[in-house]
Amino acid sequence: MIIITATDIVYEIQGRELLQVEQLQMNKGDVIGVVGRNGSGKTSLVNILA
User: What CA–CA distance (Å, rounded) separates 34 from 44?
Assistant: First the structure.
């Protein structure tokens, strides 16, 4: 069962593109890890999805 689907997410701050996600899908029971360098937009992505 799909619990979230997101497409074409783009997030910019002061002209700097932090995120560009073409498609994201999470299913019930999935375990998701968000990995990246400091300032790469991990928290921003989670906030957008929330």
Answer: 11
